[in-house]
Amino acid sequence: MSTATGTATENKAEVTLAKVGKPAPDFNLPSTKNMETLGENISLSDYKGKWLILLFYPLDFTFVCPTELTAFSDRLDELNGIGAEVLGVSTDSVHSHRAWIKTPRDQNGIEGLAYPLISDVGGKLAAKYNILVEEANIALRGLFIINPEGILQYAVVHDLNIGRSVDETLRVLQGLQTGGLCSADWKPGQENLKV
Fold first, then answer.
1. Complete DSSP assignment for 105-138
2. Which DSSP symbol is given to 8?
3. Is 65 a catalytic residue?
């Protein structure tokens, strides 16, 4: 016999929030991978075996966002060179993403973006990463590094006005890839701490 409390608990959808050291929340969302048809979804499993930098940003056609997205795009070869891919995410539609990607950079666009953007229109993925601003249905600036096994290794969240650093992301990624202990201000090429 089921109690009222038991029934309510069974019907309530469980949302697993992202936590460093735990499997990253899965997704399967519309993307700009195919700019012509916008018909290709992207899922976390597409990045199995690679490091993934997941860049959440608030909105297309804003002011700080294009500086971040193009900065990561312009240095994508460096990131790819150490086994990492980049994926941008916002609550905008793929149609908005495509229009923004086709807008020249000198007109506040991100023309030539070298990695895909995914569309989290309902904000469900942003909610799983605990960065959804519900009343506005936008994401805070969240940067998450997921390892090749799908485990979340790094999470940093900024307010809307502050952009993220490609240099710091590269430093952290390379530190994570050493598998060892990295001191404050550790730089690639330096030794890990000995214990």
1. GGGT--TT--S-EEE-TT-HHHHHTT-EETTTTE
2. H
3. yes
Q: What is d(CA 125, CA 26) in angstroms, rounded to the nearest whole number?
A: 8
Identify the CATH number of the domain in which residue 28 sits: 3.40.30.10
Model confidence pLDDT, tens digit, residues 2-54: 444 444 334 345 668 999 999 999 999 999 999 999 999 999 999 999 999 99
Written as six digits, the tokens of 84 are: 């990492």
Location of structure tokens 């502050």: 162
Let me know if residue 39 belongs to a domain.
yes
Query: pTM of this prediction?
Result: 0.90
pLDDT of residue 16: 82
Is residue 106, in this structure, part of any structural domain at all? yes
Question: Which three-class secondary structure state does DSSP give residue 96?
Answer: helix
167 domain-assigned: yes
Number of structural domains found in the chain: 1
Angle subtended at Cα 45 by Cα 169 and Cα 59, rounded to the nearest 5 degrees? 55
Strands 41-43, 141-146: pairing kind = unpaired
**List 24, 42, 53, 65, catalytic entry:** 65
CA dihedral for 36, 102, 67, 159, sign (positive or negative): negative
Residue 11 lies in a domain: no
Is residue 104 within 8 Å of 55, Cβ to Cβ?
no
| pLDDT tens digits along 87-131 | 999 999 999 999 999 999 999 999 999 999 999 999 999 999 999
